[in-house]
Fold:
Amino acid sequence: MNVLYIERSTGECRSGDWVEKLEIKDKPDRIVVGTGPGSFAGIRSALAFAQGYAIGSGCEVLGLPSACALAKAGRRIAVIGDARREKLWVALFDGFNLVRDIFQINQSDLAGTVPNDWVVTTPDGARIGELLEGVFGERYIGGQSPTADGLKTFAEANPSILKAEPLPIYLNPAVRD
Structure:
């Protein structure tokens, strides 16, 4: 099966130049898209591209939380991201198993969230790296960006988490002023 993996939950995604960089050598039978949490524009544009491509080609589109791209075999790791407004989102992985659904906490509740023998990383190192290092010390292994290759590794190790008809992971309701 030919699978195309797309991960756009981090970085500037307002231009469409990332589509030109996709390496589509053969028509994919399936597209797996990172569903966040993360950049609203990036996640929505990746999903829109995948769904539009699928309409024309008849391929299947599946979603996978973007934090899965940072899980590692044989490692207990917490992926913690900035949910803004003094909140954080947390994903706990025991190897390639998501221990529980991604959840949100207040920054003040961070210390007791991760078991003592787990390491911690974030896709938001520039914004919350110092906070994580202050709370977790040497257990904080630095910031990492989710990648399409990371999604592929996780999806191949644990395909049961793939979701049909994927939607972005929204942690908060839309803000209306």
Notes: The mean pLDDT is 91. The longest helix spans residues 40-57. Helices lie at 17-21, 40-57, 125-136, 148-157. Residues 72-143 form one domain.
